[in-house]
Design brief:
The chain is α/β, with parallel strands linked by helices. The chain has one domain: Rossmann fold (3-Layer(aba) Sandwich), CATH 3.40.50.150. It has an 8-stranded mixed β-sheet with strand order 1-4-3-2-5-6-8-7, with helices on both faces. Strand 3, helix 2 and strand 4 form a beta-alpha-beta unit. The termini are far apart. The structure holds S-adenosylmethionine. S-adenosylmethionine binds next to helix 3 and helix 6.
Length: 223
C-alpha cells in the first residue's frame, strides 16, 4: 500500500480474469500513459471519476505510482500490461467515458506497421469498452500515422469524428512537452462511439509465422 493508503499499481494475478471496477463511478483510461503527467493531473481535478493508465514499461509505471503518492491521488491506478490485450479481454463492456491515446509509438518503418496500436482489432475492442457516446482522444507528432488513424476511423461506421479537447499546457503529456519544445507540429483528433451491433469480440489470434524469404536459409531443427 502507498503512503496515501491506496495501491496505485493494479496487480493482476490471473490475466484471464476481467478487472473489477466500481461501475457506479465513471471511468477514463489512458493507453501508454507513460509517467502519468496527464492522467494524474486529470484524476486530481476530477475526484468523481476513476482513472486507469495502461503502460508496459516498468520504470514508467513506478513513476506514475510516485506521482499518485506525492499528489495524494486515490482515484487513479496504473496497469502494467499490453493495451490491446487489456482492451480485448479485461475491461468491462461499454463503461469507459473517455479513452486517451497520446503520442503512441508510430513505428515509422513500413515493415513495423503491424506493431501499431490502431487497426481494426483495437477499434473493435475500443468500441466495446467505450460507453455509447464515449470518446477517444488522440494526439501525435507523426503526420503519416495521424492520417492512417483518421482513415481507420473514417472506415468504421461505429465512430464519428468530433472536435478534439483543447490542449493548453496543463494537459500536455511528457512527450507532448518535449515535442513542443522542439517546435514539432502536434496533430490531434477525437471520435465518439455510436450505437451499433454489439457482437462478441472474436478471440485474438497469433498470426502465422511468415514464410522464410528465398535465399535465407532455414535453421536446422534441433534434435
Ligand atoms: C511515445 S510514449 C508516449 C507516452 C505518453 N503517452 C506521453 O505522451 O508522454 C508511448 C508509450 O506507450 C507505451 N506503450 C506502447 N505500446 C503499448 C502497448 N501496446 N501497451 C501498453 N503500453 C504501450 C510505451 O511503453 C510508452 O510509454
Amino acid at each position: 500500500m502507498s503512503e496515501a493508503g491506496v495501491d496505485h499499481v493494479l496487480r493482476v494475478t490471473d490475466i484471464t480474469r476481467p478487472l473489477e471496477f466500481d461501475l457506479s463511478r465513471p471511468l477514463e483510461i489512458e493507453v501508454g500513459c507513460g509517467k502519468g503527467r496527464f492522467l494524474t493531473a486529470r484524476a486530481k481535478a476530477h475526484p468523481e471519476c476513476d482513472f486507469l493508465g495502461i503502460e508496459r514499461m516498468l520504470e514508467r509505471v513506478r513513476l506514475f505510482d510516485g506521482k499518485c503518492r506525492r499528489g495524494g491521488i486515490d482515484n487513479a491506478r496504473v496497469l502494467r500490461l499490453e493495451a490491446l490485450y487489456t482492451f480485448h479481454y479485461l475491461l468491462p463492456a461499454h463503461h469507459a467515458r473517455r479513452v486517451y491515446v497520446f503520442f503512441p509509438d508510430p513505428w515509422p518503418k513500413r515493415k513495423h506497421h503491424a506493431h501499431r496500436l490502431f487497426g481494426p482489432l483495437f477499434l473493435n475492442a475500443l468500441w466495446k469498452r467505450l460507453e455509447i457516446g464515449g470518446r477517444l482522444e488522440f494526439a501525435t507528432d507523426h503526420a503519416e500515422y495521424f492520417e492512417t488513424v483518421r482513415t481507420c476511423f473514417a472506415d468504421d461506421q461505429r465512430f464519428e469524428e468530433v472536435e478534439p479537447m483543447p490542449r493548453p499546457p496543463e494537459v500536455w503529456t511528457e512527450f507532448e512537452t518535449m515535442f513542443r519544445e522542439q517546435g514539432l507540429s502536434i496533430h490531434c483528433a477525437a471520435w465518439r462511439s455510436l450505437p451499433a451491433d454489439d457482437a462478441p469480440l472474436a478471440p485474438l489470434t497469433i498470426p502465422a509465422e511468415a514464410e522464410p524469404r528465398e535465399g535465407i536459409a532455414r535453421r536446422a531443427p534441433r534434435d
